[in-house]
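Bug #2210: token dump truncated for ApbE family protein?
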Amino acid sequence: MDFSERTYRQLHRQDDLQHFQVMVQETDLDIGIRKERFSPELVKWIEDTICSCRKPLETYIQKDPGFQKALIPYEVPEDAPLIVKTMSEAGRLAGVGPMAAVAGAVAEWVGKAIAKRSRDVIVENGGDIFMKTTRIRKVGIFAGDSPLSNRIALEIHPEQTPLGICTSSGKVGPSLSFGKADAVVILSTSAALADAVATACGNLIQSERDLEKTVEFASQIPGIKGCLAIKNDQLAAWGTIKLVPMNV
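Reproduced locally. Full output below:
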């Protein structure tokens, strides 16, 4: 899973931010912050933050391996770690297993921590994004072989953030999908929820005929702000979605 060395990462990078990569085991984050906030010490602190995010999740999975394997909503005890409960609740609302929310949950955990040190922050984790911004930004849409891929973008305004922008595809990437969507993009103030709902929506799409029912499904879930679904040369959208050309 390199996606041509993850070239899709160029679609959310911003000229005014310093972008860099931080990896801890399977976690591979592309992070953008204000240039004046960047330092080697910050990178080390982010590595430690990722570890502090991963550790309670890994420890919980060792005790309850069913959590990691579940493909349907999975209940966890009240004393479970916060990230575990967040993923479980996201999966419950979306109707999928809790691990469908893991990339968004990690991006949000790390992003919120960094936001205390940089007023502008973008954390991307396998196509799932947490964003906090003080200016209008454009996030390109990678949709595999669709003619719309790399041609359209979401315009995100500061008042919409902090925001999760999460993408699922039945054709691109390692994540499990039972559908054939070129891309489903979900917006929510919870990146974990956006991630889980993107997976659920992606599962619904087999052909262009499924686009409308998919965005209708997303619109019924509390906490979802917008949905964009793409199959071949067709798309459907609902909610707080502003599409603009990518290269303008």
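Output looks complete on our side. The chain has seven helices and eleven strands. Marking as cannot-reproduce; reopen if the truncation happens again.
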